[in-house]
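Blinded run. Sample ID left blank on purpose so nobody reads anything into the name before looking at the predicted structure. Input follows.
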Amino acid sequence: MAINKHNQSKRSNILVLTEALLVAYMGYITQFILVQIGISEPVSIEKLVVNVGMLTVSILLCSLSVGLYEAKLRETFRGIIRRIFVSVGLSYFLVEVVSRALFDELTMHSYFLPAAVSSIIITLVIFRYFTNRLGLLGLGKVRIVVLGAGERASIIEKRMRRDVDRIGFDLLGFIPIPGDNREDGIKNEKIIHVKVDENFQQFIADNEIEEIVIACDQRRGTLPIDVLFECRLRGIEVTDLLDFMERETGQIVVNLMYPSWVIYSNGFHSQNYLRDAMDYFLNAFLASFVFFFAWPFMLITAIIIWLDDGRRTGASVFYKQERVGLNGKLFKIIKFRSMRPDAEKDGAKWASKNDDRVTRIGHFIRKYRVDELPQLFNVFKGEMAFIGPRPERPEFVEKLVREVPYYNQRHNVKPGLAGWAQLNYPYGASVEDSMEKLKFDLYYVKHQSLLLDILILIRTVEIVLFGKGR
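Blinded prediction complete.
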């Protein structure tokens, strides 16, 4: 096994084991304190083991589902805290339901679970702070070096400037390769002048390099194949720039893609046949669940829109518009109307962040994504999914297909109410913005999975609750 994959696996295993011990210990300590201060009576060891065990397993599974044990999690410390709250909060309800339904005779004092959950959250937050900031438990960064210092390599400098972008690796520097476009290349990063020859192995060993990223502008006749082959045999990971950016940033750099990379990649079609077969039933179930709680808000929204300008203009509270769906098939999307009835009297226009066509109530329902709720009916009809790229208008798709490479690949999956691009890219309405969002859309198409869908759903709920939408 390659060194960096082995190290990543080792780090993840250490993290899971340590947090399991911490959670179990805090559950035990919580019961001990409740007994000492007279709130709870002493319980049998079997009863304590069952309850602490359920809580530990539940928290580990929920933490896994929200990506807390993902080796390449790119998140600020504040984001990690939010994920801890979500995972422990979900575990609280799971343990409460399971213990009441299956182990009623083993139920602890009513104060045990809230107290244990509170102490566990505090403990995990403190633990993650020190492991992330100080690199404890061997959770240090992977040391990498980049072959290339030209235009292609500069994408790392431009797109990964912040510390949070480099949380998983320690970049030693960039090694110039003959043929690099230095004029448009690296400007502010460390340049390492070392020959990539038979002595390169010593340089790798002296600097404890675990991974080499190939980012040179010209490969033919300039890439030291024999040297890289020897590095690979010695367990050093050799990664193409596109794969590196995909792994570290959660996007596919479309403007740097080349045909051979697409051919040798795992493609942009789902290989999860069970997930595909259950797709409609899962989405319909989720849509029914959301509709059960959301219908009062939908009714109130419809009444307010009608009172705001629908009564005066006679316009519908709903807005139907043709969009491009799965495999390019057209369908009518349904939304609450957030713009004036004459918003497109001069033809189709991109929506902008502070669009003056938006009504008073429209600003509010856009911010909290309430205008998206009628799309539940599109989900029931099988035209949309909960998670997927946002469906675009055919007028814009026709233009984008001509100007943005690989744009049609985003239609390999159903469009969705929420998506990876919406979470990772701010609101935008131009060809350039579409290019940037496509990088995230293609990443989702290529890596779609149940865990990724769960992560997107959780982060979308966070956006709705805290009003971080448009």
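Unblinding after everyone has recorded impressions. Residues 3-138 form one domain.
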